[in-house]
Design brief:
heterodimer, A: 288 residues, alpha/beta, Rossmann fold, 11 helices, B: 335 residues, mainly alpha, MetI-like fold, 14 helices, 0% strand
Chain lengths: 288, 335
């Protein structure tokens, strides 16, 4: 909880304009170069945390309490333009669906270099060289040709690698990776995870990694926040989560993960009684 | 593959124009009103009538007449105007530049006004500003072009006479024109007094034609922009630090322009149709004005010529729209 944290979220509450809470009293920190996984089922609010940080909450939702410090800067003290500037300088996003995250009518090159030249003030040559370098780094063959291509000429896996290169290009202190492998098939998933981890180490970027896949958590993160209905159920190191999970929900999530290495190993869904019990506990806490 | 597309397109065009030729030829002949009777003084003898009828070939059968006419058209001979006694092709081509200048000036105004309104509306989506754009464009759209024309005549011709309400040019200006593109030639040859006079004469008729189209562009482009502005790539641009206006102009505009373009192409042909009445209203020397005279005088060859030219113009515009659609959309450009 020091000023040196890349990201520090305190008591963050996000609710719909109708008042329905989406996130309740979320606390988490991310130190420089650290990878934190946000896990939970669909609708647990994992993506919502990243969106609140980046300022891309849907129009129906808003931050209704708590504070977000991005590299020590309290985001709620900034006006819209300052906030946009602050986020752009400190953070980047690897989106969930590579098929919709590239502009279909523009070539790849400007989609990587434009933010570098126009927002970060780089020279065209420097941005161009950085883009080529990173495309090579994410194992894209013939990067010069790919830079001239349109998105529809490239596969989903290639587009996700381009988006990863684009996210790392300005060497941001923070990257929000919003289920970056969900839309890809399993073989490509592994490559993508490996690339994110390697680049993260190289650049020294802290990553907020949103996923519902405990297998991915084990591979990539040092810290884990387990979410259920917009609440953090457990916050611990990845090692502790897998060796000694304290919350029954965490244990249930781990038990619900199928093993690719040993498909015969049985896995069980999260028990309905546990979910019902947690829901009633949350309902009791809620002050209406 | 490309050659086949072009060939099939050309064939469709020819069939379309032939169809238009047949329809207009038959229509002007079954419509009431006899051109021969219009030409002769009252009480002309049967002999005179028969002679003149034979001279213009109206004594032959409809099918025969049609093939004589279309045979000439294929060779570039559209016949001779009955009232003006000049080749139809000369008359029509002399008027075409006036109508083209007016229509494209109107299109330019419509795209400018409609585009700016759409961007403002999309930028302030969900706010009273957007509601104001919707309301204004709805109101503007509900008034047809000729009513706008009458309103402008009343406002800027009568109540506050700042604009000229008739003609294409101040007759006192002396200029040796090479073409009939008055405004364009004035601009290109550096005679800005001529160009200025031409544009001030065109302003009211062009605005009358443009306003309904501008309103339509505002509504449609704004809707398309809003749909693009929830796409992931625009979210990514915002995260990267681009302002909403930058996101609209750099990311959203080209994507939103594509579906808008098709409709604007169709509506532009309607705008050209509107020139017939608006040119009349402002005594503007274009094709539309000539068309009304031709209909009043039952000048059959001239009517046919004008209608065929309008049809060719519409086909050309549709081709241009298709072409620009392909140019704007990389997904259609290859393969």
């Amino acid at each position: 909880m020091t000023m040196s944290s890349t990201l520090n979220i305190q008591n963050l509450t996000v609710s719909l304009r109708s008042g329905l809470p989406l996130l309740g009293q979320v606390n988490l920190t991310l130190e420089p170069g650290e990878v934190r996984a946000l896990v939970g089922e669909s609708g647990a609010g994992k993506s919502m945390i990243g969106k609140a940080v980046l300022g891309t909450l849907p129009p129906a939702a808003r931050v209704s309490g708590g504070q977000i410090f991005l590299r020590g800067q309290a985001l709620d003290r900034l006006n819209a333009a300052q906030r946009r500037h602050c986020v752009a300088q400190s953070a980047a996003l690897i989106p969930q669906d590579p098929l919709t995250a590239l502009n279909p009518v523009r070539r790849i090159a400007p989609q990587i270099t434009d933010p570098l030249t126009r927002i970060h003030g780089w020279s065209t040559e420097r941005a161009q060289a950085r883009a080529l370098d990173l495309l090579e780094r994410v194992e894209i063959r013939d990067p010069a040709r790919v830079m001239r291509s349109y998105p529809h000429e490239l596969s989903g896996g290639m587009r996700q690698r381009i988006l990863i290169a684009a996210a790392f290009a300005p060497s941001p202190p923070l990257i929000v990776a919003d289920e970056p492998t969900t839309a890809l098939d399993v073989t490509v998933q592994k490559q993508i995870l490996k690339l994110i981890r390697e680049l993260q180490k190289e650049v020294g970027t802290a990553v907020l990694f949103v996923t519902h896949d405990m297998g991915v958590v084990a591979k990539i993160s040092q810290k884990v926040s387990v979410l259920f209905q917009g609440r953090v159920m457990e916050d611990a190191t990845t090692e502790a989560i897998f060796t000694n999970p304290t919350h029954p929900y965490t244990r249930a999530l781990i038990a619900a993960t199928p093993s690719y290495a040993d498909p015969s190993r049985s896995f069980s869904p999260v028990p309905a009684e546990l979910i019902a019990q947690m829901k009633s506990e949350i309902a009791k806490e809620e002050v209406w | 593959m490309f050659l086949r597309t072009v060939l099939s397109r050309l064939l469709t065009t020819l069939v379309t124009l032939f169809g238009v030729a047949v329809v207009v030829f038959v229509l002007v002949r079954v419509a009431p009103g006899n051109p021969i009777a219009m030409m002769l003084p009252p009480g002309a003898s049967e002999d005179d009538i028969a002679q003149l009828t034979a001279l213009y070939g109206f004594d032959k059968s409809l099918v025969e007449q049609f093939f004589i006419w279309i045979g000439g058209v294929v060779q570039g001979d559209f016949g001779t105007s009955i009232t003006l006694r000049q080749p139809v092709s000369d008359l029509v081509l002399a008027r075409l530049p006036a109508t083209l200048e007016l229509s494209f000036f109107a299109l330019l105004i419509a795209v400018a006004i409609g585009g700016v309104a759409a961007v403002i509306g999309a930028r302030r989506r969900g706010s009273p500003t957007e509601a104001a754009v919707d309301l204004t464009s709805g109101a503007v759209l509900s008034i047809p072009d000729f009513l706008w024309g009458l309103l402008f005549v009343l406002l800027f011709g009568v109540l506050w006479p700042v604009l000229s309400i008739s003609g294409r040019l101040d007759p006192r200006l002396e200029f040796d024109f090479l073409t009939n593109f008055v405004a364009l030639e004035g601009l290109l040859r550096g005679r800005f007094d001529v160009a200025g006079s031409a544009f001030s004469h065109m302003l009211m008729p062009a605005l009358s034609l443009a306003l309904p189209l501008a309103a339509l562009i505002a509504q449609l482009l704004k809707q398309n922009l809003k749909e693009v502005l929830i796409q992931d790539y625009t979210t990514l641009s915002r995260v990267r630090g681009f302002s909403e206006t930058q996101v609209i102009l750099r990311d959203a505009m080209r994507n939103a322009a594509l579906p808008t373009l098709t409709l604007v192409g169709v509506q532009f042909t309607f705008l050209i149709g509107g020139t017939v009445i608006v040119e009349r209203l402002f005594a503007y020397g274009g094709l539309g004005n000539m068309a009304i005279d031709a209909v009043i005088n039952r000048d059959l060859p001239l009517i046919q010529g004008i209608v065929l030219l309008f049809a060719a113009l519409f086909v050309a515009i549709n081709m241009l729209v298709d072409l620009s659609y392909t140019l704007l959309n990389p997904r259609l450009r290859h393969g």
